[in-house]
Specification:
One of its GO terms (molecular function) is DNA binding. This protein is of the alpha/beta class. It contains twelve helices and seven strands. The chain folds into two domains: about 30-105, lambda repressor-like DNA-binding domains (434 Repressor (Amino-terminal Domain), Orthogonal Bundle); about 110-290, 2-Layer Sandwich (Endonuclease, Chain A), CATH 3.30.870.
């Protein structure tokens, strides 16, 4: 596999776990969306349906159907399944789900999302927001709802769907080995309100029960902290390639240069040594949950 030595771009709300403020239309993925849109329209016309009728059968507005057909918006997997069945497409539309799903990420994050989905190991350090792979739907919606300038409701929904789709990595067999080092400040910040935070902490506890997942908390009281420069993710592929993804202030990099990746690996190892153990961390999260 040949990865670039440094992809750099502005972050978008579909990518980094804390959100981002970019609101542009899909670019690199627009070709896939246009192809899907043409196929969707072709099957709709073949079925003799106008957009209002098709929309009522799938539960989507005429304007949304038009946006899907014109390749201006990313259709969610549920819509693709419905459309394939309603239009008797014989699985043609469903076969495009994977490529369409990738189009929901910004260009700079698309490679990272693909690598994340194919990883045999994922290691995440977070000090701004709960890692996207662990976020609940309510937490993710709250994160996107706080973006400034504000996103419209459709954009928020698209980004929530994109973020939750990344969590399908937990359903892989064999499941990749994952670890998360999370700053305590993240677990105390009531994004979306105390109820949302309560549900989020419960989600973290559930994830921490998995044999392939280790969660560690970096306590606020720690006098040593190797991760003050910001969040990052380490990825190892089945081919043995090691990649680092870094995002700071809406600027993101995918690193494959060994020297840079190795430096972050060393930093992550120190972070884990400074943090609470996985067992002590889950006990600590339970304590935080009890305080809400």
């Amino acid at each position: 596999m040949s990865e670039p030595t440094g992809l750099v771009d502005e972050a978008s709300t579909s990518g980094g776990d804390g959100g981002g403020e970019r609101q542009s239309e899909p670019e690199a993925g627009s070709g896939v969306l246009r192809v899907f849109g043409r196929q969707l329209k072709r099957f709709r016309v073949r079925a003799g349906m106008e957009r209002p009728e098709f929309g009522s059968m799938t539960g989507y507005s005429v304007s949304t159907i038009a946006a899907y057909e014109q390749g201006r918006r990313v259709p969610p997997p549920r819509f693709i399944d419905q459309a394939d069945e309603v239009l008797d497409a014989g699985g043609v539309l469903q076969e495009m789900k994977e490529e369409v799903a990738r189009a929901q990420y910004p260009a700079f994050f698309r490679d990272a999302a693909r690598l994340e989905g194919e990883a045999v190991e994922l290691h995440v350090y977070a000090n701004q927001a709960v890692p996207g792979l662990l976020q609940t739907e309510e937490y993710a919606r709250a994160v996107f709802g706080m973006m400034r300038p504000p996103l419209d409701e459709d954009s928020i929904e698209e980004r929530v769907v994109a973020r939750l789709a990344r969590q399908e990595v937990f359903a892989k067999r064999p499941e990749p080995l994952m670890s998360f080092a999370i700053d305590e400040s993240v677990l105390r910040r009531p994004i979306g309100g105390r109820g949302v935070l309560r549900g989020q902490l419960e989600q973290i506890l559930l994830a921490g029960q998995k044999r392939t997942v280790e969660i560690q908390v970096m306590p606020l009281g720690s006098e040593e902290h190797a991760g003050l420069a910001g969040p990052f993710t380490l990825i190892e592929t089945s081919e043995g390639h090691r990649i680092a993804y870094v995002e700071v202030q809406n600027v993101s990099h995918v690193h494959t240069e060994r020297r840079l990746v190795k430096g972050l690996e060393v930093k992550y190892g120190i972070l884990r040594a400074q943090a609470l153990t996985p067992k002590a961390s889950l006990i600590y999260v339970e304590k935080l949950l009890g305080e809400l």
